[in-house]
Amino acid sequence: MIKCTCLYVFFSVQWMMYVKKITSIKLQVQKQCQPAAMVISKAGRVNDLKKLNITETVLRDANQSLIATRLPFSDFEGILEKIDQAGYYSIECWGGATFDSCLRYLSEDPWERLRKIKAKVKNTKLQMLLRGQNLLGYKHYPDDVVRKFVEYSIKNGIDIIRIFDALNDFRNIQVAVEETLKHGAHAQGAICYTISPIHNLESYVRMAKELEAMGVNSICIKDMAGIMSPQEAYDLFKALSETVKVPLVLHTHSTTGLGPMTYLKAVEAGCSGIDTAISIFSGGSAQPATETMNYALRQMGYETGLNEKILKEINDFFRPIKDKFIQSGLLDPYVMGTETDALTYQIPGGMLSNLIAQLKQQNALDKLDEVLLETPRVRKDLGYPPLVTPMSQMVGVQAAMNVLLGERYKNVTKEVKAYLRGEYGKAPGEIDPELIKKVLGDEKPITNRYADNLEPEFEKTKQKLGSLAKSDEDVLSYIAFPQVAEKFLREREEKRASTVNYTIRKL
């Protein structure tokens, strides 16, 4: 009996030791299998997830890319509070082509639009896109105008300003960056990504160092045509994260189908923020879908802060709005598809939707393929500028003219002439000397920062407008788009003059 008891105790101890060993091995395996971003606490909870910032673009770039920025405030006013509750890092809602479209097509005051958005979005940062010395227009403006514009953008509700120069000539963003920082907003310096014989990893790293030295709060790689491959994204963000200390953001489009994969590889390499669009307004020439990226990133162990239930409400809200634009013909199926040819012609989403609209107006949509083939040729002639506003418009319009007129450079736009004169900054590469000779003759292009040659303009314009301008914001609108803004301001004045206000009092 004693022998049996001892034997039982022996085997019990051995079994307990075996279970303990197996448990230890299991815990080690579990720990190794957890995503790198996840840590298991003593209580068994997952914590310390890597935070990834997501910016929603439906109010700016998504609708700019798909419907040529024709989304009126009334169409999205009812969902703003929900967007504010969704958990986004920021909402891109202003800048880019929104300013021009508000005045030109929507009969809206862009400044009032911003204030209305701010009144409903109280918790989430509002973000805008600024073209450096070009502001929101298509030419360079004097420094006093740039400073005023940045100041009033912040006063009216903007928290983050993404600032870029179409040529990556950072002399043209210095003033905007300084003024943004001066007024306590977040200055995000942007590098326009493109592929050419003169753009490479080393050049982008050098640009990032230059931006960091300038004092920007973060750096965005702006892949406006969706041409960055997953491997290129990994290599670039790995190099950048090892070189600069400020947070890194990636902006891309789904034009070529690479977008979601590119985002994931960039995040793996150190990217801390991405731009997405609510799914009903995503894909094609817009950004990858917010919900899809959120789902994938969470499975990888990243915390986005997004509320999936609210995301669905936002998407359901925009569904009939998208249907409306499809029925009107403004949302062309072409921009909703995957266009791998964009890897060749590198046309960004906003440019593509506008180019289609312009060719339709000329009854020349059948020439689209020819225009797309001509675009990289014009780009090469101009020294490989990145195809982003205003360069994308310049190159696209000139390519269209070359095709429609049946002769290359038979007619050269005034914008291209200004570019050849050096009014937009230093070209990334060598401009075709024959083209310079044909357009400029013996005229020598300027080499200094063009804005240094411009006289202050704000106060002079303010005096000129007199009572037509009711605010400094009106003056800035006029400076940016004189003819369009003047028409808008006069129509607004006529509307006010014809409006009768009265009060009913009980006697």
Q: Which helices and strands, and how do they pair?
A:
Blueprint: H1 2-33, E1 39-40, E2 46-47, E3 50-51, E4 53-56, H2 58-67, H3 73-76, H4 80-85, E5 90-95, H5 98-104, H6 110-120, E6 125-130, H7 143-155, E7 160-163, H8 174-182, E8 186-192, H9 201-214, E9 218-222, H10 230-241, E10 248-251, H11 259-268, E11 273-276, H12 290-299, E12 302-303, H13 308-328, H14 342-345, H15 349-361, H16 368-381, H17 391-404, H18 414-420, H19 433-440, H20 458-465, H21 472-480, H22 482-497
Parallel strand pairs: 3-12, 4-5, 4-11, 5-6, 6-7, 7-8, 8-9, 9-10, 10-11
Antiparallel strand pairs: 1-2
Helix pairs in contact: 2-15, 7-8, 7-21, 9-10, 10-11, 16-17, 20-21, 21-22
| CATH class descriptor name of the largest domain | Alpha Beta
- CA-to-CA gap between the ends? 111 Å
User: pLDDT average, as an integer?
Assistant: 89
The SS-based structural class is alpha/beta
> How many structural domains?
3
Total number of helical segments? 22
Quantity of strands, as a count: 12
CATH topology of the largest domain, what is it called?
Answer: TIM Barrel
> Order of strands across the widest beta sheet?
4-5-6-7-8-9-10-11
Give the proportion of residues in helices. 40-55%
- Cα Rg: 27 Å
Strand content: 5-15%
- Shape-level CATH architecture of the largest domain: Alpha-Beta Barrel
What would you call the shape?
A: globular
Uncertain segments: 1-13, 18-47
- Would you identify the CATH H-level superfamily of the largest domain? Aldolase class I
Largest sheet: 8 strands, parallel, barrel
